[in-house]
Amino acid sequence: MKTRPIRIVGAALALGLTVTGLAACGDNGSDAGSSGATGGSGDSAKKIALLLPENKTARYEAFDKPLFEAAVKADCADCEVIYSNANQDAAKQQQQAEAAITQGAEVLVMSAVDGKSAVTIVQNAKAQGVPVIAYDRFIAGSDYYVSFDNKKVGELQGTGLVEALKAAGKTSGDIVMINGSPTDANAADFKAGAHSVLDSSGYTVKAEFDTPDWSPDNAQEWMESQIGAVQANLVGVYAANDGTAGGAIAALKGGGVNPLPPVTGQDAELAAIQRIISGDQALTIYKAIKPQAEDAAKNAIALANKQKPTASADKEGVPATLLDPVVVTKANIKDTIVADKFYDVADICTAEYAAKCTELGIS
Ligand code: BGC
Questions:
Q1: CA 189 – CA 152 distance, rounded (Å)
Q2: Cβ neighbours of residue 44 closer than 8 Å, sequence gap 6 or more
Q3: Beta bridge partners of 134
Q4: Residue 44: its pLDDT value, please?
Q5: How confident is the model at residue 42 (pLDDT cuts 50, 70, 90)?
Q6: Neighbouring C-beta atoms of residue 158, cutoff 10 Å
Q7: Atom 10, ligand 1: which residue's CA is nearest?
Q8: Which helix (H) or strand (E) holds 146?
Q9: How far apart, in Å, are the Cα atoms of 287 and each of 22, 120, 160, 325?
Q10: How far is the CA of 59 from the centre of ligand 1 (A)?
Q11: Beta-strand relationship, 144-148 and 313-315
């Protein structure tokens, strides 16, 4: 069965909403047809809205969206996913949430652009009887939260950076920190987790920056602006995710910093795995998105059916599931990313990386 993204007409078009008619084929695999402009499979279909925050970070369009849609499809033949991406615009996300409810969404699964203003989105949805799952990023007052242990993400980044510095024979010197977006609740956790390690590490946090919109371009510009002031004693760069790491590395290379200091990241983006293989980036944090998307789908279906979510934890009174992040360096790409088939070896080990892949036993 193929999923069929179909554009909604009118205002929803401007908001970038799409509906995937997951119930478009029946058990026998034949097309059961679709209804109206939304392309859904009829009034009886359960509609689940997936609201993601941005598309500069590869994970959302490459992993979260397709994995969530596939998981909903697998568990609920009679469900449709209304998808929208807010492109880092909190007001747009609010409109997308309202549009999804107007389209009949029975549950919202949302990764908030702005954790604080999303509280209002949650309150409005709940006032209309629509429960909300906080996906990846916490929202106070939501009905369920599925994420990773985000403090631990920061701790792993900090510890990984210190280990890389020690391995490079650096016992002191300056670190700069390129944190995530100030409106993202996760970014504060990553930062706190990293500080809890770096502040007492013997290295000096010389300067730090909260990157607006998690934008790699903003990270690059900030790193460029700092090179003159920090270069002399710079031993390491904490970057909160792989997008900002890419920006930082581009700035360092452009500024003639050679050799590059160890740089951290997060998300196990393909470009970052290749940078780790080539030696430009020290580490990333691998968060297996499949179990996260599957857990969100399972609990969205439960909530749409007026059942309670299944949770093993609690965050500020919200039932939660927190998955385990894993640090990835050259040493364990094979046992993590490759073993999990997160990417095909052929995609990682392109001609440019083939020799290093062989050295690392990635085949
Ligand atoms: C996510 C990261 C992502 C970042 C930028 C965070 O909330 O947990 O995986 O890199 O947002 O979108």
A1: 8
A2: 78
A3: 110, 145
A4: 74
A5: low
A6: 25
A7: 241
A8: strand 144-148
A9: 26, 28, 15, 5
A10: 8
A11: unpaired
Cα–Cα distances (Å) from 24 to 7, 64, 222, in that order, read 15, 21, 48
Write out pLDDT tens, residues 12-28: 444 555 555 443 333 33
Give the residue ranges of DSSP H helices in 231-349. Answer: 242-254, 270-278, 289-304, 345-348
What the block records as the tokens of 90 is 């909190």
Q: Which helix (H) or strand (E) holds 185?
A: helix 185-198
What is the Cα–Cα distance from 146 to 137, expressed in whole angstroms? 8
Strand partners, 337: none
DSSP state for residue 64 in the 8-state scheme: I
Q: Ligand 1, residues 57, 151, 210, 284: which to mutate, most atoms within 8 A of Cβ?
A: 57
Mean pLDDT of the chain: 90
| 284 pLDDT higher than 70 | yes
Residue 20's pLDDT is: 52
Q: Which amino acid is at 87?
A: N
Upper half-sphere CA count for residue 316 (Cβ side, 13 Å): 8
Q: Which two tokens stand for residue 352?
A: 């440019």
**pLDDT at residue 311, rounded to an integer:** 97
- For residues 8 and 37, give the distance between their C-alpha atoms in angstroms, rounded to a whole number: 6
pLDDT, tens digit, 9 for 90 and up, residues 239-272: 999 999 999 999 999 999 999 999 999 999 999 9
Most informative mutation of 113, 114, 152, 186 for ligand 1 (most atoms within 8 A of CB) = 186
Residues at CB less than 6 angstroms from ligand 1:
54, 57, 59, 136-137, 180, 184, 186, 214, 241, 266-267
Nearest to 145 by CA among 102, 100, 184, 111: 111
Nearest CA to ligand 1 atom 12: 57
DSSP string covering 335-360, please?
IIIITTTSS-HHHHS-GGGHHHHHHT
CA distance 14 to 260: 43
